[in-house]
Amino acid sequence: MSNAVNIARRKFLKQGAALLATFAIPRNLESLTKNNQMTNKNTYDVIIVGGSYSGLAAGLALGRALRNVLIIDAEKPCNESSPHSHNFITNDGIAPDEIAMTAKTQVKKYETVEFVKDIAVKGLKINEGFKIETISGKSFLGKKLIFATGITDLMPNIQGYSECWGISAIHCPFCHGYEVQHVKTGVLENGESGFEFVSLISNWTEDLTLYTNGKSTLTEEQTRTLESNHIRIVENKIIKLEHKDGYMERIVFADSNKERITALYAKNLFIQHSQIPEQMGCILTDEGYIRTGNMQTTTIDGIFACGDNSSRMRTLANAVATGTTAGMIVNKELIEEKFLIKRKY
User: Fold this and answer.
1) Residue 315 belongs to what domain range?
2) The pTM is what?
């Protein structure tokens, strides 16, 4: 057999083997390779830290504006303990995780929006914009940043409280009040805040008690006003909430006395879920929220905040509204920077 024939035969076998190997690659390996290629891309128009309702709303607005977007999310929303969401038009009474799943499915339809399940741990200002580093060791670059990171509630030192939080220990009458109307209800608060809060809750029930959890700091006038409206004031220290699967049955006091209760409203102390915005120079309000302007701008140029981290209005509707606003304004800024247009906000 001639050398030319041998060379041609070896070339044919080599090409055939390569072709067979291509067909032999499992589909999941092909998918994995594709995903790895997407992950290796680390430069975006916008990085959104937080992929719950507000972050998804921002991502949707930006995806529809053809922007390359990365959403970094740990998939731990602050309302994951709540069985249902209310006062959110078209989704009233739907479970929060179901709403989030539907939203994420819709956002994923936009091919310029990518998701990474990770936790952002550090942010840096660089010449091209910003750099975000994650707990897994990855780093991503973006021209703009949107923080939709929410807040972390600090639970009071009351046994059983955390198990009831979001179920029968609640924060918002517009989110939960209808479901606990006309039942034995308490408000855990004191002073001016307690007076205002319990007055608000009286709209949903007449069987109402203000638990000051220690000596009352109400003024004499406030005390008389509440008493004249048949609102009890209890100063006993609370040590425990007896419940069944998060649904309250009784309050237990330090003196061992108990009383029946169905729902307890409270204003928890909180901290920012992510410390990155503050570490990057974003100023917080006296209450602890990220300070933002009307267009969700923070005090650092190019950084935006939306949702619960920057507003006391803790509703899904507000989270979506502020997220959409942030996404639209970020896109507007990118266009203005391209055309050197002076901003008017």
Assistant:
1) 42-153+270-339
2) 0.85
